[in-house]
């Protein structure tokens, strides 16, 4: 029998691209678990989904995976959105009967605007029935994007006994993912991230070659990709 959650409380987590999205989702899940209430995740973008670059697509994929893992009520993607963010937040809040909203303060996120007086005042007027949690998240010095360039779409293909990374869609069988190149190197050194069976995986790349091919073998169970 499915567990019935209380409906007098409902939490909305607003995420935008950057390092803090997963932290905010987990913070929201922790609070929703304590309150035994529904949890919703919202992200807003002015561009349509099919126009997202590899980095944005990677975040969407990870948040979708995390939403399934944590069994959130719904992961809401408002793409191709022309309305102001606060209007969208208000619309979703009313539609889902939201009582608490979690947003993050991040140097890399448009949601940081919520911490500024004018925007916050507008949002409070739009959603007077909800409590707001403004979460200040400190960026660790060892996070990926401190030492890696912006992610780009890439492919791993088999090359004799090795696996190499290429940046144009190959005709041969390949693994599609996102490559984060290390800063300050002229070689293709970095991390390649890809999804398999709704889980994110990563392998190290050194001078264009996968350094831990056993992970590829263990996932696919064969020597060929």
Strand content: 25-35%
- Give the SSE order as H and E letters: EHEHEHEHEHEEEEEEH
CATH fold group of the largest domain: Rossmann fold
Helix content: 25-40%
Query: How far do the termini sit from each other?
Result: 41 Å
How many beta-strand runs? 11
Question: Under the CATH scheme, which architecture of the largest domain would be assigned?
Answer: 3-Layer(aba) Sandwich
What is the arithmetic mean of pLDDT?
A: 81
CATH class membership of the largest domain: Alpha Beta
Structural class: alpha/beta
SS field, number of helical segments: 6
CATH-assigned homologous superfamily of the largest domain: HUPs
Secondary structure elements and pairings:
Elements: E1 11-14, H1 21-35, E2 39-44, H2 54-69, E3 74-78, H3 85-95, E4 100-105, H4 117-126, E5 131-136, H5 144-147, E6 152-159, E7 162-166, E8 175-181, E9 190-196, E10 199-206, E11 209-210, H6 213-220
Helix pairs in contact: 3-4
Keywords: Kinase, Transferase
GO molecular function, one term: phosphorelay sensor kinase activity
Protein name: Histidine kinase
Give an overview of the whole structure.
The protein has 225 residues and is an alpha/beta fold. It has 2 domains: 11-136, HUPs (Rossmann fold, 3-Layer(aba) Sandwich), CATH 3.40.50; 144-220, no CATH class. It has 6 helices and 11 strands. The strands form 2 sheets. The protein has a 6-stranded antiparallel β-sheet with strand order 7-6-8-9-10-11. Helix 3 runs parallel beside helix 4 (117-126). The longest helix is centred in the N-terminal third of the chain and has 16 residues, at 54-69. The N and C termini lie far apart (41 Å). Mean pLDDT is 81; it is low at 111-117 and 140-146. GO terms for molecular function: phosphorelay sensor kinase activity. Keywords: Kinase, Transferase. It comes from Ureibacillus sinduriensis BLB-1 = JCM 15800. InterPro entries: Histidine_kinase_KdpD (IPR052023), Rossmann-like_a/b/a_fold (IPR014729).
């Amino acid at each position: 029998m499915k567990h019935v959650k209380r409906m007098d409380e409902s939490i909305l987590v607003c995420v935008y691209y950057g390092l803090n999205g997963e932290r905010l989702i987990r913070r929201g899940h922790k609070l929703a678990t304590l309150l035994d209430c529904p949890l919703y995740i919202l992200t807003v973008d002015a561009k349509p989904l099919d126009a997202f670059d590899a980095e944005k697509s990677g975040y969407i994929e990870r948040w979708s995976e995390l939403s399934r893992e944590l069994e959130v009520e719904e992961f809401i993607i408002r793409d191709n959105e022309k309305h102001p963010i606060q209007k969208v937040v208000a619309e979703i809040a009313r539609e889902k009967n939201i009582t608490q909203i979690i947003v993050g303060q991040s140097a890399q996120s448009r949601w940081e605007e919520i911490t500024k007086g004018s925007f916050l005042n507008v949002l409070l007027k739009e959603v007077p029935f909800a409590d707001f949690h403004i979460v200040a998240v400190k960026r660790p010095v060892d996070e990926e994007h401190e030492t890696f360039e912006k992610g780009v779409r890439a492919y791993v293909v088999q090359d004799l006994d090795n696996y190499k990374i290429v940046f144009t869609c190959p005709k041969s069988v390949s693994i599609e993912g996102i490559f984060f190149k290390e800063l300050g190197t002229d070689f293709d050194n970095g991390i390649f991230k890809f999804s398999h069976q709704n889980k994110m995986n990563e392998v190290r790349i050194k001078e264009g070659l996968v350094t831990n091919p056993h992970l590829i073998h263990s996932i696919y169970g064969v020597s060929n990709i």
